[in-house]
From TrEMBL:
Record's protein name: EF-hand domain-containing protein
Domain EF-hand: 61-96, 97-132, 141-176
GO molecular function: calcium ion binding
Keyword match Transport: no
Family annotation (InterPro entries): EF-hand-dom_pair, EF_Hand_1_Ca_BS, EF_hand_dom, Recoverin
Pfam families for the chain: EF-hand_1, EF-hand_7
Keywords: Calcium, Lipoprotein, Metal-binding, Myristate, Repeat
Keyword Nucleotide-binding appears in the UniProt entry: no
Family as reported in the entry's similarity comment: Belongs to the recoverin family.
Amino acid sequence: MGNRTAKAPGPQSLSDFVKKKEFTQEELKEWSEIFKRHSGNKEYLTEDEFTEVYGMAFTGDPRPFIKHMFRSFDSNRDGVVDYKEFLTGIGCSTSEDTKTKLSWAFQMYDVDGDGLITKHEIISIIRAMQCMINQHPTDEEIQQTVNDIFRNLDRNNDSQISWDEFYKGVQKDPKLLEVLDCEPQTV
Ligand SMILES: [Ca+2]
Ligand SMILES: [Ca+2]
């Protein structure tokens, strides 16, 4: 039933970002320094190191959310984030280009990577986001939010959200963007 043919675009390559000038030279230098500082002399960040990069700016516990961030940064799923994955993830998550940013958000929501978002997957992301800002909504409140999201996005009512449904629906509903727009800042 779900639209399995349209897949979310994968993270674009680093060279694409640099070509499109998503980063200035100063930004690149800054990210490179942050990467080096946290990775030591290695060419990658472990999940713990990645958590140090992202974990400072929150009142609550950011670790559950950073776990999801780490997964979406680690595009080759080898358990570490190398510099190219790091920059690509930052570029996607902060992109001015709606499609790029949403494709990255979709990948984060699609926890098992099967190309569809289930209620269960959305609940785990929302819980992680709330935990990060030290809010602890009840099960009913979360269920309500998720039902609202599905009412808006799940157009064919198969209890799963395809990339197509996500992309079209989120653009139309600014409230949904607010829920989604929860990117950690590193400063
Ligand atoms: Ca990796
Ligand atoms: Ca999924």
